[in-house]
Protein 1
Amino acid sequence: MYPVDLTTHIAGMTLRNPVLTSSGTYGFGEEYAAYCPVEALGGITLKGITPLARLGNPVPRLAETPAGLLNSVGLENPGLEEFLKSYLPKVRKLPTAVIANISGFSLEDYVQMASALQQDSGLAALEVNISCPNVKHGGMHFGTDPKSAEEVIAAVKAVTDLPIIAKLSPNVTDIVGMAQAVQRGGANALSLINTLLGMRIDLDRQRPVLANTFGGLSGPAIRPVAVRMVWQVSQAVDLPIIGMGGITTWQDAVEFLLAGATAVSIGTGNFVNPQAPLEIIQGINDYCEKNGLTSVRELIGLAQKVLNS
Amino acid sequence: MYPVDLTTHIAGMTLRNPVLTSSGTYGFGEEYAAYCPVEALGGITLKGITPLARLGNPVPRLAETPAGLLNSVGLENPGLEEFLKSYLPKVRKLPTAVIANISGFSLEDYVQMASALQQDSGLAALEVNISCPNVKHGGMHFGTDPKSAEEVIAAVKAVTDLPIIAKLSPNVTDIVGMAQAVQRGGANALSLINTLLGMRIDLDRQRPVLANTFGGLSGPAIRPVAVRMVWQVSQAVDLPIIGMGGITTWQDAVEFLLAGATAVSIGTGNFVNPQAPLEIIQGINDYCEKNGLTSVRELIGLAQKVLNS
Amino acid sequence: MLTEGQVVVHERFGDEDQRLRRLVLKGPMAKTAQAGQFVAILVQDSSISSFDPLLRRPISLAEISSDQDEITLLYRIQGRGTEILAKAQCGERLSVMGPLGKGFSLPEAGELWLVAGGIGIFPLYALAQSAHTQGLTVRLFWGGENKSFLESAGLAQWQALGIDLHLCTLDGSLGQKGLVTEGVQARLSQLVGPTKAVPETSQVQIRVATCGPARMMQAVSKLCMEFQVPVEVSLEERMGCAVGACLGCVCTLMDASGALIHKKVCLDGPVFRGEEVVWDVSC
Amino acid sequence: MLTEGQVVVHERFGDEDQRLRRLVLKGPMAKTAQAGQFVAILVQDSSISSFDPLLRRPISLAEISSDQDEITLLYRIQGRGTEILAKAQCGERLSVMGPLGKGFSLPEAGELWLVAGGIGIFPLYALAQSAHTQGLTVRLFWGGENKSFLESAGLAQWQALGIDLHLCTLDGSLGQKGLVTEGVQARLSQLVGPTKAVPETSQVQIRVATCGPARMMQAVSKLCMEFQVPVEVSLEERMGCAVGACLGCVCTLMDASGALIHKKVCLDGPVFRGEEVVWDVSC
Ligand SMILES: Cc1cc2nc3c(=O)[nH]c(=O)nc-3n(C[C@H](O)[C@H](O)[C@H](O)COP(=O)(O)OP(=O)(O)OC[C@H]3O[C@@H](n4cnc5c(N)ncnc54)[C@H](O)[C@@H]3O)c2cc1C
Ligand SMILES: Cc1cc2nc3c(=O)[nH]c(=O)nc-3n(C[C@H](O)[C@H](O)[C@H](O)COP(=O)(O)OP(=O)(O)OC[C@H]3O[C@@H](n4cnc5c(N)ncnc54)[C@H](O)[C@@H]3O)c2cc1C
Ligand SMILES: Cc1cc2nc3c(=O)[nH]c(=O)nc-3n(C[C@H](O)[C@H](O)[C@H](O)COP(=O)(O)O)c2cc1C
Ligand SMILES: Cc1cc2nc3c(=O)[nH]c(=O)nc-3n(C[C@H](O)[C@H](O)[C@H](O)COP(=O)(O)O)c2cc1C
Ligand code: FES
Ligand code: FES
């Protein structure tokens, strides 16, 4: 379909291209069907699920900031059982790589979900969200302490035969240390980054805009932080990285690849332009052509090579 | 001059209003004279100085990002001696509160500078930058480890009679822990926040835009993170906070005050609108009037009170 | 559906101090559109992307002429996004998602009562038109701040429909002085006596569709439930994706079993059965 | 000085594919302006603030008519900021900082040689005008990509000045084929023989002012130093504050003592003595 070879290998998955969509921004894969056929995507990541169903946080759950979006959805999801019963049968049939995203509030939570999701589920991989900043003591604890991060990844790894993608929180002093920890835990790949913890205050009501006070900051505003973390981590660990954080245009996506990401994922960008993933795939292809590259894989970390040459 | 009492007390200083300008964005107080008379400001914070003169990083030092700015100036400054000789005599005469900003690469650096800067220098306070993310192992180490942060503040405190303002880095897992550490060290006030570490890559040159690869992210993009940190810290420690990070309009400034800041500081916002500080002072005044407040001090942390009432 | 809507009309609507605008867009989105649905517009010059403001803005369909491939949007300049939208020139093309969501349902027969508060009137006009063409008896209860607002917000158009209008204003400068709900209550009581159900056998089958401030829709729903009149409400919530993918815009309903559930205003709504909506929630 | 410049002319300059624009602003900034200085323009609709893009854009003064309170800016649409600027309508008011920086110095007498590369020609026009009015002999050496570029970038205006023009293009489609420096070197050698200094006693005192790509200005400076001809260069660097407060825009000079020092392009420049500039630095 494309003159340039866009095939991407990550955590044992072979993706038709390096463009995924991000957990929590793409529902369960069907919502955007009218705008962007999933078969065109490298893959999709499902909304985060937890062992039990959650109603999440009260509204308002969204607040706009300069070039950014704060969200405090609070992991609303149908729960593991309902997911297996009503969602999995549909999503496993989707003609693209489908990655489930799991969150928990204890080691047991993660283990319970991982055990229930194996290769035969038809899923391509398991993204372990140890970084959701919205829920009080939610993933946060796991996501900011290297030891617990290593433990949860190791525990999950032990009970499922699916590839494990560790999704890291940017709200840490030492992102490289966190990446090394989950590598020790046996992660097959990394997702960088989740949202930055932020808040906004309503001047009229003189209270936080979000009912939950705090929310996760996403969108173009955080891209420089995300690119920096991908750059640092890709130099320190030898796991493939799914780069995300503010990607809205193909230029943004190429920036992440040049920084060292093996694939990219689009989140908030879908809200701005529901066809962003398609335009980004095309744009990456054209950028490779323009630069005489026959495979998108040649872009991975290219800026580091150029700098060190 | 203003119907509302804008007088602000912080770290023993009495400011005519709560609006300061931020270190590194306002030179040595004279550059913006044609746009904003310093006597209108609550105070100004000078460019960070180090014991020895520094040429800083190569250019390009600046890169624009969505609603943000990356800088890698690298603490270019004339050095302590030259500062005392050629700058201090001028700045001490400025008709506003003048705060010096010191950075160092060892405990001794900080102590050396603090010893040289006392009440009789005519300075109003000393802002200790333990957070400049631009210089390799620069302030970074002090700014991310609570113990060393406490040590450096204590050491500085011991050798100068000037009020000490600890300027914290946002690039940490636990900003509250850092604030508590510098409070133990004896800080009289806090400046929140310095820049977030970020980077950008040039798609044409396939290398980082900044010659230094990494830079500090400032501007409206980081405001939600800064407001969140001010909110969290003001609840945990009882030190006055100078809130900064993306303030460009009076609404932004009021947001910080409502979140718990005692004063605000304008950095990158000056680049967009060199009269921003004046408009912000007026805007804060008008907001107080509109809300029937006779003193700006009633705004401090108001959103927390409203939320908890 | 993501399309480019070409601006064919963009004008002030009523008094300038009401800050209302009328925007007519030409494009395929009109074909399948239904009253109560909305579009999500990118409020930026589509030729040069700026990410501040970032999100699209949801605006309801105020008129639908599928034959001319045109939709009419009526909106108030609220903040920065709508301010930027207001600068769109004729001929310009705006990036439009939609029609989105689930609109109002049209009864087979009987009376359709429209109850509007403030600019909640806008989406009801499209509904009135289709109901009217379908030969239903349409009745409007509309409450606004004052005469100037009602006139600015399209009163003349409504009068042109030749339907019964029950107007009220807070200051009494036009119609009854007071809240729109009082008018509705009065009329219902008149028909069937105070808080007695409209008998199934009654020759008039009444249905209510309401849009306006939450508090007002809540009151209308309560009233309708007392009189056992079916009611539909059009909810509003901050939106991210506008297609049901982000869970940013949920509202709370009570299902048959009495359990609280979340629905997506963008996908399952914005129109819901008033009986089901749980108005005062913090979950 | 921060002022609002009113757009009185804003038009395409030359072939559209050169993406050049001519912008004339009316405002007090013209009064004190000097050739070589620049302004920093807020490239956003000033009525509605957007922070993307965030920074002002520096543009040199191409013409100054203090009597009419007008400045002319010539710019190329490079990226998003200038693209947004290009949409400014006549009558609109733009937020302008300036005039900023230190401009070119005008010799008392003798010949002023202007050496331009590409759009580096723009700031030199204002200089040529004031030099011309002051009765100096002005000579232009201008190199561009091709005929179409030179014509688009204002060749006619220059010809109208009635000064000596030494044109060259990379493809030879107009003037000499090759680099502008070759023309300068040839002329200098002609005057005084290869790489010998212009004798102090020489009746012609030559001064050079150059603007263009760094590499080209570096070559011109080298040449001038060989021939002991004073040269001024106009540097370019990314800017933050544009007033000397942020140290974002530094360039490296060698001071009398031979030490490397930093100067601010925005405040101490953009014009510097070519002899002092250190071109290849990484500090
Ligand atoms: C389904 C739906 C249909 C709507 N139809 C119309 C319509 O036909 N005409 C009309 O004038 N308005 C309509 N609105 C409201 C309209 O979307 C908001 O007024 C608009 O988004 C404000 O954006 P802004 O940037 O101008 O204001 P902002 O500066 O973003 O905010 C100004 C105020 O508008 C409110 N607001 C902002 N975003 C939203 C949002 N996404 N949803 C609800 N409120 C918001 C906030 O409370 C805020 O205080 C509708 C909203 C929804 C959800
Ligand atoms: C003192 C000075 C005077 C100038 N005078 C003129 C002039 O008279 N006419 C003219 O066409 N241009 C002039 N420039 C260059 C002009 O400022 C840039 O082309 C413009 O800022 C690009 O902004 P953009 O958003 O369109 O492009 P961006 O998308 O920001 O960048 C596009 C390219 O422009 C370059 N650029 C961006 N910002 C700057 C900057 N602040 N300084 C230098 N290069 C930059 C970058 O290398 C980038 O690759 C001048 C620059 C300086 C520093
Ligand atoms: C509304 C919303 C909901 C999200 N929910 C989840 C989630 O359930 N699990 C998760 O790991 N990340 C979640 N995220 C984070 C995104 O997957 C992504 O990491 C982050 O938004 C940064 O990418 P972006 O800037 O492209 O959106 C969510 C983000 C948004 C905006
Ligand atoms: C160009 C530039 C230089 C800076 N230099 C310093 C410095 O020397 N010392 C310091 O403590 N902070 C420095 N900062 C950080 C600012 O003081 C401020 O904390 C930060 O920019 C966030 O505020 P803002 O978003 O309003 O700019 C610098 C920021 C910028 C943009
Ligand atoms: S706005 Fe995303 S689910 Fe409704
Ligand atoms: S741009 Fe700030 S010092 Fe020159």
Protein 2
Amino acid sequence: MPQITYRKALNDALAEELTRDENVVLIGEEVAQYNGAYKVTEGLWKRFGDKRVVDAPISEAGFIGMSVGASMLGIRPVVELMFWSFAYVAYDQIVNNAGCVRYMSGGLINCPIVIRGPANGGTNVGATHSHTPESILANNPGVKVVCPATAYDAKGLMKSAIRDNDPVFVMENTLLYGETWEVPDEEYLIPLGVADVKREGADVSLIAHGRAVLTSLKAAEILANEHGISAEVVDLRSIRPLDEETILQSVRKTHRAVLVDENKPFCAVSAQIASMIQEKAFDDLDAPVLRVCSLDAPAIYSPPLEKMQLPTPERVVEKVLSIR
Amino acid sequence: MPQITYRKALNDALAEELTRDENVVLIGEEVAQYNGAYKVTEGLWKRFGDKRVVDAPISEAGFIGMSVGASMLGIRPVVELMFWSFAYVAYDQIVNNAGCVRYMSGGLINCPIVIRGPANGGTNVGATHSHTPESILANNPGVKVVCPATAYDAKGLMKSAIRDNDPVFVMENTLLYGETWEVPDEEYLIPLGVADVKREGADVSLIAHGRAVLTSLKAAEILANEHGISAEVVDLRSIRPLDEETILQSVRKTHRAVLVDENKPFCAVSAQIASMIQEKAFDDLDAPVLRVCSLDAPAIYSPPLEKMQLPTPERVVEKVLSIR
Amino acid sequence: METLLEAGVFADAAINRELTPEKKINLLRQMFRIRRFEQAALKHYQAGTHMGGFLHLYIGQESVATGTVSLCGENDHVITAYRDHGHALAVGMSMNECMAELFGKTTGCSKGKGGSMHFFAPDKNYWGGHGIVAGQTPLGLGLAFALKYKGRKGCCLCFLGDGAVNQGVYHESLNLAALWNLPVIYVIENNGYSMGTSLERSSAFKNCLAARAEGYNIEWDQINGEDIYEVRAKTWKAMQRAHDESRPTVLEIDTYRYYGHSVADANAKKYRDPEEIEKYKKFHDPLQLWQKRLTEEGVINEEQAAALDAEAKAEADAAVKFAEESPLPEKADIFSDVYYEVDRQTPAGRTGKHFFND
Amino acid sequence: METLLEAGVFADAAINRELTPEKKINLLRQMFRIRRFEQAALKHYQAGTHMGGFLHLYIGQESVATGTVSLCGENDHVITAYRDHGHALAVGMSMNECMAELFGKTTGCSKGKGGSMHFFAPDKNYWGGHGIVAGQTPLGLGLAFALKYKGRKGCCLCFLGDGAVNQGVYHESLNLAALWNLPVIYVIENNGYSMGTSLERSSAFKNCLAARAEGYNIEWDQINGEDIYEVRAKTWKAMQRAHDESRPTVLEIDTYRYYGHSVADANAKKYRDPEEIEKYKKFHDPLQLWQKRLTEEGVINEEQAAALDAEAKAEADAAVKFAEESPLPEKADIFSDVYYEVDRQTPAGRTGKHFFND
Ligand SMILES: Cc1ncc(C[n+]2csc(CCOP(=O)(O)OP(=O)(O)O)c2C)c(N)n1
Ligand SMILES: Cc1ncc(C[n+]2csc(CCOP(=O)(O)OP(=O)(O)O)c2C)c(N)n1
Ligand SMILES: [Mg+2]
Ligand SMILES: [Mg+2]
């Protein structure tokens, strides 16, 4: 299978869906002529033109709200946020309009909109640019949230997101754009709401989403090589809808779980899942469900320090050893 | 002790702090001449005048951001949001400016701002007006969040919030404004970060915040009278900082916990606390920690239905019986 | 102040000259229907048995929705804020589905899930009904974007209040509308107050609020809302600009609300001089003025007008009966209409957990 | 196009006539310092060993921060966006603390926690350094509010870019500034581009961006940024309006950035015709023009100017050395400067759990 980058996988997904459905339109800052601040939309403006790939002014609330309105009439906007952090200036449009209009209209309306962009720390861009809002957005019934960890998942989930008839928020990662994975040439889709066991194991379940999955895989490597512990790595892929079954199956097998989450700890996705596991697999647990999150402060700039602030394989290993 | 309403308790707290510190200024829509959409600021404009009590246009991002800026120069704004739901149009100003500027300036700045207003469902005002954002805001290190359940707590917490030198978000409840409790005439403060055991019990801990505390007390009544179960009711009062010790003491005593939370379940405060309890009191638990939250859909309008959507004493009792 | 009506000038506009007597009478009928519907709603809200939440009455402003919407063709769309009953009836929604919505019944236009602020009828190009001030302004822009994208010759009439102009998203929308030549018309219904705050206390401006459009190089105009002929003539110009040039317009229509901001408005008579309210009812009431106009034109007489009013009242009473007799949603209905895919039970809707109570 | 400088007219403004030779030379020194500081920063960013994140260079725009800030008195405050190095040095921050911040060291102005976008010096009335486009605009309004509240005769200079004018919160701020008569001056540094998007592709307007102020009844003016005399003369008028009448102003200063949007800007030379960049460097460079002006005025000669430049370069090199030799924060420092009460270990800071990793 060809090896392509996470960035290229997203680019291919967008190109394929733009080709498949003329109602798909890309909107965002610098997505067209500039080819995307992170080059995810490279070449698409040249190929699909002004109508299908639209450069927007710095008015996130305006163009996201506009996209929600257009989606009510059957357009399928795929909006790029240069950083998901900028969703905060459009928060009302995202939560109240994209998220609630179907309900408030008694189901007369649906919003087939996708909002995508990077949501991660680790690039020293400071506190305001490093938010990971998957937890706060997934708090709202009516929206869907996915966090792909690999190029393969990114492409398959993005295509499903674009075809989904509800609002879907795709959270990518600038640290992954340049990483490569095997991705087949043939078209494929990955359904929302299906987790993926990225590594089989027997002694402990490492459960994560987004880049934390790669951190977990590194930790599993160390645990196997240095501690003789066999860790299973469960990649949630989709936050809402959530694949609870796969999580529970893994925990029922390993009887131990450590959640790895790049969000700040308070009310993070890992809190929801820890709460769910202890509720539904109480008697299967041989130890408390533990969490490894970002160190609980705004994202620090200093490059060597921010590295320590995010979950590291070492911190994951340490947690696992504490409940071995 | 005199009985006063939750509304009057807040009004007294504001009046006392306006009198105590000339840098305290109230800003918000209809807070002055109209006396407040919910009359919490009644009489304050008449008494303190235009400079201290300021009517604002419908520009939440603008006047909250303005208040954050003024707080950097030592003003102590107390901003009213007619509904906390409207924070969503000011979300960036609240999270990135109030919440991060201290950190990004290496501690050179602090923002002694209070944002207050009702955050609750149950009044049939629809999905966009019924958000309970305590969980999503408390996700951010740098901010503080309190949710008073009684008039006594509302006054004591509001006064502490105004004197606090960090941003504090006070979430009130329109269904409680008219309720009365005993409140002493003498001045008192309630520190942030201290929970309150509202009812002692031995068999199960009901842990809640805001109006859910009253739901829990009703449930405790029923459990005692109809099922011979002695429930302890722990009122968090403060979400961040959080009093984990009081929660854990209660659970170590009762060995069972049910969390009651008017937020939607996914990543709610109750998820954070369930996760914390199982982590820190794993061996003390005789049953999984369970949660009773609002039914997981946007707030429905239909009055009889919205009543069912919020946690009811009956649903709490049912959960408790499931783990008796 | 006396009424500003200068008969003639706007009546002679082409778009008004083509009005048949039937059409003119229909405009009067629509205004009676809006007023009677809301009077019935108010009465039953105060009875306190069925309705909850907010009830923002449009009474006094009927000519705005009636006049503007009367110009809409099959590709013209309408969206507004929470004061949405008038527009709903103007686009052709039935009193039954609207009243039932207020009563929170399954037969309501939004199945009792939206309430007063959230009336919708996409089949009639009516997109709500939105509770967050100015939150609808980029949505209206999006409807215009979709029309242009699909090559349909139409426009979106996006209504907002005089207080809503101070929400930033409205300005972002204006810039996008002008920059991308989108056929949207922002109609500012200036009733002089945002809740208890007068125009002067909420907005800084030159000339009028619509004039802010100048900064975006957008055409704008000001309209005396008590004259349906003027409302139609000037709105039509804007609609032609949208249809033919795909350019936006901002219109400011001066009007007045007789009741409080909402039924919950305790101070309705405090921040406004009662004489001011009386003056409007006496000299500027759009129903009376239109009826007077039609009488002068010999299009209608006293009895006929009274009959229209009586019909409207009867229709409203019947709607109340319909609403009262309609069923409430079931508890299970709380979980429908959240996700399209779940409602349709598509493969996507059947994959993964969507709801998290247990 | 040739330079627009018309000598004389602005040089004769009272505020400029009172400039002593020393002061004029100091303005040149400041501009050299800004340019040399950033050239050194760029060099070490590209070396790739210490810095991360963004680095937005101000080179080409030096006259704006230098000219405007030179007018500030003890109650005048400054706040800007992420392109904040020039303003930081102009208000008197040392190259050492600024360079150390870029290197993420504890000796940085923000202890290495803010980085390039977040320089602060409240003791010098400098409030940052803000990364969210236009996010600083209501903060600047708040500084003005505080000054007025405390009865201090001062103002806030709030800088923003030409792309930032399309964020709604800026418009909300304009309305509040005008409505409440707040002494804030919004200075739009119009360098023609927001990242890769030209002014024309991002904003619809009449005359210029500043003219949008008209809709709020706010005074505005447009300034040729390459002429420090013009920058000072027109900005001073606005500051007098703020000081004496407590009224806001919007100023648009035309300028140009020589480098990409940030060091990460891969397309810096794609969306702008290289000739355009060369033309600016050749005919409109604010340093060269000011040096030429001072030479004509006989205030300075070649060698003296060269010496100033050399001093600036030496200062920048020393700052790099200082930064390199400074210590990094400790892991524990991640948790300081989050809460004032915790940092001070007050009773409030010692009550309840503030951090949730365990
Ligand atoms: C963002 C936001 N802030 C505040 C409110 C509360 N609110 C509802 S209507 C209203 C007044 C709006 O006045 P105007 O725009 O003039 O419309 P009118 O009510 O006069 O029709 C306010 C403050 C809201 N719904 N949304
Ligand atoms: C709300 C928000 N949206 C997008 C960005 C990304 N961004 C940073 S700077 C910039 C361009 C701003 O251009 P301009 O306002 O002209 O200032 P300049 O860079 O020219 O100084 C963009 C889009 C951001 N930081 N914040
Ligand atoms: Mg109004
Ligand atoms: Mg620019």
